[in-house]
Amino acid sequence: MARGIEIRDAHFPGRAPIDAYGNGGFRFADMSHRGSILCLPSGIHGWDRQDAVGLTAQDLERVIAEADQIEVLLVGTGTEIRPLPEELRAVLRAHHIRSDPMSTGAAVRTFNVMLAESRAVAAALIAV
């Protein structure tokens, strides 16, 4: 039986700063990922979002699943800052997560600083 290419969910099992972003992806931990990512206490996961318009709690279910380890969620909304829908902010608040939308570049820089300070931070980063 011939085996084809096995496609798995992208996941880096650990915390790592983001070394670079742009050209539709991110570099971290001597690796690169094309597309958006979620940076969580459990690791860095590929995220199937191409823009921040209409984000829902379902889009951030991995974040919510780790809510007990997250105080702040930085949301990199692409090249432009987009506010999060009130319904999503309410769900995050109910899980004691403060959300902060900003451009992806600003979110990467802020995430790296907060990670270096060992803060309980997560990031949802739309690729630019």
From TrEMBL:
A Pfam family recorded for this sequence: DUF498
CDD domains of this UniProt entry?
Mth938-like
Give the protein's recorded name. Answer: NADH dehydrogenase [ubiquinone] 1 alpha subcomplex assembly factor 3
State the organism named in the record: Mycoplana dimorpha
